[in-house]
Amino acid sequence: MTLLILGLVLFIGVHLVPAAPSLRAALAGRLGEKGYKILFAVASALGLVLIVLGYRAAPVEQIFTSSETARSLLPVGMAIAFVLVATSQVPGHIRHLLRHPMLTGVLIWSGLHLLANGDLASNILFGVFAAWALFDIFSAEHRGKRPVPARPVFRADMIAVVAGLAVFAAVLYFHADLFGVPAI
């Protein structure tokens, strides 16, 4: 459980830095913009690796009975979540309409997984990600930050949908290998 928590602290901690503009500016000033982005990427990747290793090694301690409704919604919810994350990276109409597509995708992913599992490690993992996504949405709104493409392009939406569904299919197929539990 220690690796899981350490990974979450590292990953979420790095992702909280942009919510504190003065801290981000200080780090970017000290490291340079490129150095800051490299540190951000390396720390994020290391955090993800620790999260996966820690989650796989965590003992299964059931806290509540998992929701069959959430389990049945997972495939559709995850397809939507992956498309939303992909949408956040391209200047399409979906990104133009939704305020925070990536964070909404993370919230769908974490919320459904939290309800569908019910064990301690899942509660920690998905609860922390859900809390972070909500915090980041509120923080971005408070700062008035809303990434909006100047000219939405329909082709970008199609690329995001295809890419999101392709990654979803790959994660679905390799879920047991990656995370130690079958997806369905």
Shape: globular
Count of domain modules: 2
| Distance between the ends | 24 Å
Put simply, the count of helices is 7
Beta fraction: under 5%
Helix content: over 70%
Q: Ranges with pLDDT <50 over ≥5 residues?
A: none
What is the alpha-carbon Rg in Å? 17 Å
Give a concise summary.
This protein is an all-alpha fold.
Description:
The protein has 184 residues and is mostly helical. The chain has 2 domains: 1-58; 61-184. 78% of the residues lie in helices and 0% in strands. The chain contains 7 helices and no strands.
How are the SSEs ordered, and which strands pair?
Blueprint: H1 2-16, H2 21-57, H3 68-87, H4 93-97, H5 101-117, H6 120-143, H7 154-179
Helix pairs in contact: 1-2, 1-6, 3-5, 3-7, 5-6
How would you describe this structure in keywords?
2 domains, single chain, 184 residues, 7 helices, mainly alpha
